[in-house]
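Can't attach files on this board, so I'm pasting raw text. These are the components:
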Amino acid sequence: MPAASESDGELPDRELPITPRGLRTRSSLVSAARRVFEESGYLDSRLIDITRAARCSAGTFYTYFTSKEEILAAVLEQARDDMLHPGTERVDPHENPVAVIAASNRAYFEAYQRNAKLMALLEQVSNIDPEFRRLRRERADAFVRRNARSIESLQNRGLADTALDPLLASRALSSMISRLAFNHFVVDAAGGRSAADYEGLLETATRLWVNALRLPRGDDESAR
Amino acid sequence: MPAASESDGELPDRELPITPRGLRTRSSLVSAARRVFEESGYLDSRLIDITRAARCSAGTFYTYFTSKEEILAAVLEQARDDMLHPGTERVDPHENPVAVIAASNRAYFEAYQRNAKLMALLEQVSNIDPEFRRLRRERADAFVRRNARSIESLQNRGLADTALDPLLASRALSSMISRLAFNHFVVDAAGGRSAADYEGLLETATRLWVNALRLPRGDDESAR
Amino acid sequence: MPAASESDGELPDRELPITPRGLRTRSSLVSAARRVFEESGYLDSRLIDITRAARCSAGTFYTYFTSKEEILAAVLEQARDDMLHPGTERVDPHENPVAVIAASNRAYFEAYQRNAKLMALLEQVSNIDPEFRRLRRERADAFVRRNARSIESLQNRGLADTALDPLLASRALSSMISRLAFNHFVVDAAGGRSAADYEGLLETATRLWVNALRLPRGDDESAR
Amino acid sequence: MPAASESDGELPDRELPITPRGLRTRSSLVSAARRVFEESGYLDSRLIDITRAARCSAGTFYTYFTSKEEILAAVLEQARDDMLHPGTERVDPHENPVAVIAASNRAYFEAYQRNAKLMALLEQVSNIDPEFRRLRRERADAFVRRNARSIESLQNRGLADTALDPLLASRALSSMISRLAFNHFVVDAAGGRSAADYEGLLETATRLWVNALRLPRGDDESAR
DNA sequence: CATGAATGAGAGTTCATTCAT
DNA sequence: AATGAATGAACTCTCATTCAT
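---
Top answer:
Structure tokens for the assembled complex are below.
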């Protein structure tokens, strides 16, 4: 149930091509763009880098996209599903809540790691372009809401601190998790900081989350 | 003691001017840059906008700064002290820990609000320029360390969950607070989202922080 | 007999298609081109606008035409007959000369009005492309010659000022009429100028023409 | 008094430079633009041709002008005074009206000849860009009005056909003169047509103008 | 110290035309 | 005969930075 978050709202500005050949070209442009953006960041990527990587001419780009923005949107769109880290669903909600949270957090971290460069990209452009700021917020909101529902359910079952507003608490805890992931997989990775202790981080995050909701721990509490 | 965080590491690339006139010009450039950057963001600000706002010529800029980056550094430097939200120091560390945390968080939020545009700017450039990514991390680390010391002290006094690694816990909780502030004062403010409930947010954040550390609450715990 | 003027000299670069389907496609391209050119002018019309309007693909265009220029030629060719304002022929040359001139001028104005957008187009391209400059001049020359013959005939019948060179006079008076029509139906119409008095304009033009040739007027001259 | 026509309405989009050097550069850009436009026409002239001719970089262009349109406006502006063919004023209005008209027409033709390439340019762009269409019409209107005043004055002195509306007559006769000049100096000159008889053209134009207004001729009328 | 004109590499974008299917 | 994807040369325009005055 924990885990920070995203969802959507997209806009297909140019209709998709009809022929298989067109589909292939468009698709190779999107992959090329993903590679180039991940390599150089959004700002430093030139359209020509993308078309070269896709082995087509500059003009071909405009058969499928109207702008650099639009192909970025397509890249993010294509990666959306994996970024919604499907790990979550696999967790049995009737298990021990602590175990569920631990599993969710781990799934989130793993999905983040898989898409770390894309997340860095999204972070970059959302601080540049309002359209992508909106996109990021929409994706985040979906997870905030999901976690909020989970918190509310725990409260109703008498397991979580009922003094907490579920939505506000979810916002705070989701922010905590997603920011930890960002710092760990993007900032520290790029900055050459000795990669921090992944397992320790995950364990701490989960323990804080559990404590914050005042969930009863499965183990004998006084023992620790 | 809570609150996320920053510190420093600056580089005076050009020595400061000697004459009063020079000092005045340099200073007006920095103020102008701050205004322009806050208004339009780093990328969309042209040097000529800054020099115009400072009522001097384009050439004069290079008497004081070697590049656009450098004047941004100067702007952030100048604002550093207030961005380190001085509220924290005023809190008496021997008071009730919960009250201390509440006061610290409030001080952090207030400082964030005062410098919201600058924080947005820092967020923007730290996702563009490695130099500023470093700067932001250094500032953040100082606060993480400060909060870590505070957590450790609470653990030593038998008040906080000793199963938590103080540094990792501080990273997580500091991230939570700073991200909440960013979302509230930057994202929501710009996005036209009906500004969320400030007091409720602050209260939730503090309660989560207190819970997360398993601090005993001042009030009768079972009552809530 | 008066009225300005055009004639021709065309070049069928691609032989016409044989199959009914081919004829249909070619024809729909020409109509589409006429519509598009009239709407947006020659320069702002893209081939793709034309093919879309004709409901065919970009490639099909080159089955029938070798270039944008060539389809424009086809459009102007197709409209040629009406642009040669057939009204003229209906006038009985043995009638009162003043009445003949009045009728000719009216016929010219009416034909111009019917084809105003095409005339604007021809004006535009004749100032861009030498080929079309030639086309326009050839069409104009035909009318100049026709009017010159008419003037000469009036001179021979002792009705017109014999001091005038028939060809030069025809050039001048034909220019006057065609330019009045252009200003009235193209410039004023587009410019939002309150459309001037059509009848008054026609009457003035005719009176000037008659005066210029020193034709005796049907009514009592001294009376006016 | 006869002669077709122009006047104005301009817009200085970029403020003029302050330093002599700047003034020199701007001025050399305008001259270069005039040369290039006259040589290649508006559409075929590239900004880089102009800056090369002015011996400056592409960027410098934008210090003084925001677009190709704008420098064309400056070119036409600079040439305005001569294009308003100052010859007219030298004619003594109390002389023989026929002589006055002859002199005016000659002055107009000479001014047109001096600026033939520019007139061709104006003709071209006024059929492309509404802004220049407006400019041309404003210039033309000034002359139409001037000639209309002259016609009215002749009517009041009992010399000209009072059945004519002065403004409409002026429009027609001004159109005639300007179109003759255009055909002679632009179309025929470019088209390689053996340049028609200049003196004969002028004489015919004047005679038609005089006849059209029914002015009494100085010489014995029946004699010709 | 101040000025402001000059620079120039480089980006995004357009669209008539070609060509494989 | 028709399709529509692919091409690529060519163009305009930007702006941080330099430099002569």
